[in-house]
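User: Quick sanity check before I run a bigger batch. Here is a single chain. Can you write out its predicted 3D structure?
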Amino acid sequence: MSEKLPMIAFTVSVAVMGTAYGVFAARNNWFPHPQITLAMDTLNDMKANWKNDVGLEPTRHLVPSRTPGEAARFIVKDPAKVTPGYTLIAGLSADQDIAPFTVTMYDEKGDQVHQWPINYEDADPDGPRSLNTMLHGMEVMPDGSILAAFDAGNTLARFDTCGIPIWATKGAFHHTISPDGPDGFLGWRDNTITHIDAATGEATPMLSIEDDLIKAGDGQEGIFGIRTFSAGGEAPLTYESDPFHANDVESLPEAYAAVFPQFEAGDLLISLRELNLVAVVGRTTGELKWYQHGPWLKQHDPDWQPDGTITVFDNHTGSQNSRILRVDPKTHKVDTLFAGSEEIPFYSWQRGKHQILPSGNILITEAQHGRVFEVTPAGELVWERDMGWDDDQNLIVTEARHVAPDFFTDGVPSCAVTASANHRMTPRG
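Assistant: Done. Predicted structure follows.
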């Protein structure tokens, strides 16, 4: 027995040291903890979404309905308060024989008047399957064409009224597209703010978070807060896979410049979700002119407003009640324009858009419930639409956009083509 004691002691020591290292590896994200975590996450994702990835059912794009048993529900509470014009809704297609994604346009009575079939593979034939991407950023033009950015894709594209690509530009564009003057748009390409020429799709890099914004002015490294140094050492901490999660950029329109005297036309309003940061930076310098961390939590879609304020879609993740907030950049004062309640539920733990309409009403995209609705400034429901897939699930809605009755140069878009030539997927039963 005494001869075995050293071996037993050695074995116990190895076990204790291994356990201790495992605890510290998990706590400090040391090898092999990140690799094991990634492998487990990948396995769980494949298990949950294999039907999507082999083309049987678009599980990555389906969310629970708030009203089970009432697919494709549309209710108008007060027709007299509906804002005149058209509403475009972008997301998964309810009819996968037409296209993986669609942008559908409704008139103020709620009737469908046009639909753009959007197939990612038409714009990027050598890229991922369409349903392994997500149509997220969407912008409509007066000629009836659509600009679209795809999360997890590698192409930004402009589609005509029939959903046929006009041009496609390579790059990991994501989340949002917004107007930038009369002939261009802004978007995020990875972590770089990029200008896109509307006619050609030419993409011009402007400002990178890592190379420009962090380094642009004294103290900005601390404000952005990700690139830092480990305590007691000089080695920079490694990046997580998506430490900033940039999800919006919008330039200050010339028409609004007078009500934002602290900024200049063309300055950039940005949103970094993981920092709970909304900020305004100089267009060419990247220097911070204004910023605020919260009270929004995991926010999306900050918008310039013509009264000199900024509105924000506050996901308020974990609360079960999202909010539309308004902040005055001169005073940092924040007030709530609309919040979810029992009477009008509203919660999207991720994604989401909003639009303050000419009437003063608010158009809200509740992405994670596949629902779009309009409320008055007093918080009264005007109408709501569920984008149904089946009795229990809705389609993820990534963007809803209101346009004026006279927005389109040649009237309501039309097209005789109804299906994508390249799309092949087994329809649901």
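The radius of gyration is 24 Å.

User: Great, the batch can go ahead then.
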